[in-house]
Amino acid sequence: MDFVKISIPSKNIYIKLLRNMMKDFCTIIKYKNEDEIFMIELALNEAIANIIEHTYKYEENKKIDLSIEYDDDVLTIKIRDYGEKIIPENIKHRDLDNIRDGGLGVYIIEQVFGKPQWVYCNDGNLMILKKILI
């Protein structure tokens, strides 16, 4: 198993660091599908941006924990925040016929990883994303 863990403050500037880390992790595990790697990076970007915007309301002194694991061709990303509990059933992407800027983060995440798994935590939220890498 290969894995990496990192904690970051809830600042948008750290998203680039996480995207680069994801790309480098794919290099380490010898995954070479550049189009898929870009989409994985983009989905990770959207997940972190959603936490910063919607859960933490742009408060920059909050914490986000991220772990990336690769085992038996399965990439698992766990994203943990310590904000207000979300109701997973209420998380939906906007209507794709409603053409406007923004609002596609959840759609992108679901296209890349399928539906996220949500794990109950005493404080905050834990989202698990899984993808088979072939």
From TrEMBL:
The domain of life for this entry's organism is Bacteria
Q: Which InterPro entries match?
A: Anti-sigma-factor_SerPK, HATPase_C_sf, HATPase_dom
Q: Which UniProt keywords apply?
A: Kinase, Serine/threonine-protein kinase, Transferase
What molecular function terms (GO) are annotated for this protein? protein serine/threonine kinase activity
* Domain Histidine kinase/HSP90-like ATPase: from-to ranges: 10-124
User: Is Hydrolase set as a keyword in this record?
Assistant: no
Recorded hits in Pfam families, A to Z, give: HATPase_c_2 (PF13581)
Protein name as catalogued: Serine/threonine-protein kinase RsbW
The lineage is: Bacteria, Thermotogati, Thermotogota, Thermotogae, Petrotogales
